[in-house]
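Table 4 source record.
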Amino acid sequence: MSETGKRIQTIAVLLFLAFGIAAGFFAHGSAAQKKRTQRARPQKTAPKPKTDYASFSHTTHVLTQKLACNSCHKVPAKNWNVVRKGDAAFQDVTDFPEHSACLNCHRTQFFARERPAPVICSNCHIAVTPRDTARWLFPSLGDLSDPKLKRREIVSEFGVGFPHEKHIDVVGMLQASPFGRGLGEGLSARKPSHPRNPALFINTSFQAKPAGPPKSCPVCHETYQAQGKSSEEYLVKPPKDIGDNFWLKKGTFKTIPNSHTICFTCHNADSGIPPEPKNCETCHKLGRPQPLKTDFDARLAPTMGADVLMLARWSRRQSAGAFRHEGGMHPDLNCMDCHNVATSTFSTVDPKTMKVAVKSCGGADGCHITPTLDDGGALNFEIDARKKNPNFVCTKCHVTFGKQPLPENHAQAVPTPKPKAT
């Protein structure tokens, strides 16, 4: 190669190396600049979910904000002797918290430029306008039946923990219930004695325990929409072709307390019996457990005459639509034969513990479960029918569960026949 060619080759190599170094330096600089730009530029974050201030959440206030009940609820409320009149009045939580309880945290929402009024106001107020300040009826006033009072249907965030085993004997000693007939039939239907009557509690506490089954259940639980002496057993007239199919009857459900009225008979500031009215968290347990699978058709049940109160019990399977408390010999049975409430394992905030065992349908002498089919047990008949025909639908006890596989505990409930004497 000539001298000139060598020079050209050397220059080419030098240019190639210089270009490579420059390209590398430029790439490095660009990457560094990109990193600096990325650091300087704010990163995009997912928008926070918008808070629905029209839906009050006890979970947020109690668990997240760590607020105590008395931060908002005052016992008694200012209108306690206005909501209930005369002897029926007692010191109760009878109204929503005052504005001052909310303004500590929600001043921005209270003075938001929203029309006709800030949305947060709808938690307590009906019309939500500056001119109409009427509030919804407070949820604890379930015993008030005045149609002028507007009640909002809500799903409570609380389960009510009531220890039956601690109340059965004491409540059963009440000589006479000082209150009305209970849910639906109107606790205010009869003029009650004053709930803070200490003489009533003294008589109750120091009486000798009565013999026989507890008589406390009707104090809180009475037959709802009973048939009584009426010849019509159905709530709503059934279809003509009803046959043996299920249709809801009167006297099926039992009532539960829907206010503090009965509770505050003993648990009040004067009696000194804990828990006092201000101890809300003792009974009201935040976090309602998931209800059990229900045995009713949500579309069909209302057509049978089931009202809001019935559906509340039936839809959570706290009462069964196919079992009629007023039917047959059921009113003569001891409640404790079926409902095992005398143990600490029975919990009103755990639906599983409140289920009635299938064995309770046998009765002392055998009613619906007998040793053999010849003895006439209804469960025996349906188990036998299912064995013969897998498509047989059980209808004696169940509304919609009758097509499901036979539970193991049903077969186990049938007693072993006693050997015949020789």
